[in-house]
User: Which sequence fits this backbone?
């Protein structure tokens, strides 16, 4: 196989063939996908061409990349953009398909290191936009949509409250379209729990706002500027009562009475857009 002019190995030469499903690295990737959690060393499993390209564009550090044998052409496209020290594996189709969670695997997966943030980092970004506090959201697609909108319309970052679907779930990552790689987020559990998060925000004079389907200040009349945090609750039950009792204001999105409530990701997106509009006017 010919080499490039600078003697660097070609994409094909960088690939290490793995024939058995019991390879330790393959098992680690499979386990990480299945548990929707980070590896012991703190890496996140991602899969799909677009998501891997977004990870590259976002400047994430890659630990390993896995390619499906029938999609080996993707290596020619991606590996020139990935550091030469990153381990790259080529798997038989059957083993690759059993490793990733997608029903229609695109042929590439990877372990990457996400950026770490703390609650103080989010507070320092309140000038960018509101902090999103997600409490009990269970649908991966909803959370991914919320993260994507939070980046698109400007958010200081996202706090993922206890009981919320894991941000490391492959469906969340896919629905975020790469926003999870760039938008600061913290797990409330790592910040002391939901109550500690609220206490720290109050100490910083952050106004706490929640959405409601049927009562509260109409969104076009609400003040969505300055340092504030937006609560998004569970798809069915909404916010837990103990959290609802602590908010400073309820904001309602007027809609047809024929519809009981809005999808959580949609409601968050509308509020984020209105907040961005008000900041521009200000």
Assistant:
């Amino acid at each position: 196989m010919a080499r490039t002019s600078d003697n660097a190995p070609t994409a094909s030469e960088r690939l290490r063939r793995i024939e058995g499903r019991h390879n330790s690295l393959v098992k680690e990737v499979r386990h990480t996908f299945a548990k929707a959690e980070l590896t012991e060393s703190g890496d996140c499993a991602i899969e799909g061409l677009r998501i891997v390209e977004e990870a590259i564009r976002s400047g994430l550090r890659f630990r390993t990349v896995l390619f499906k044998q029938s999609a080996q052409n993707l290596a020619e496209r991606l590996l020139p953009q990935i550091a030469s020290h990153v381990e790259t594996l080529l798997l038989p189709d059957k083993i690759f398909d059993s490793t990733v969670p997608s029903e229609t695997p695109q042929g590439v997966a990877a372990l990457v290191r996400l950026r770490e943030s703390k609650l103080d980092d989010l507070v320092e970004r309140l000038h960018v936009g509101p902090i999103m506090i997600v409490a009990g959201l269970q649908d991966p697609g909803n959370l991914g949509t919320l993260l994507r909108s939070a980046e698109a319309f400007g958010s200081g970052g996202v706090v993922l409250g206890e009981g919320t679907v894991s941000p490391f779930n492959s469906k969340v990552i896919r629905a975020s379209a790469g926003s999870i790689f760039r938008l600061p987020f913290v797990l409330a559990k790592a910040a002391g729990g939901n109550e500690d998060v609220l206490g720290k925000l109050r100490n910083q004079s952050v106004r706490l706002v929640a959405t409601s389907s049927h009562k509260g200040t109409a969104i076009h009349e609400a003040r969505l500027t300055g340092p504030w945090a937006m609560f998004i609750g569970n798809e069915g039950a909404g916010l837990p009562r103990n959290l609802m009792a602590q908010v400073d204001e309820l904001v309602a999105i007027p809609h047809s009475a024929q519809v009981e409530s809005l999808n959580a990701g949609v409601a968050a997106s509308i509020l984020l857009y209105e907040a961005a509009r008000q900041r521009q006017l200000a």
The first strand starts at residue 16 and ends at 17. Residues 140 and 171 are 6 Å apart (CA to CA).
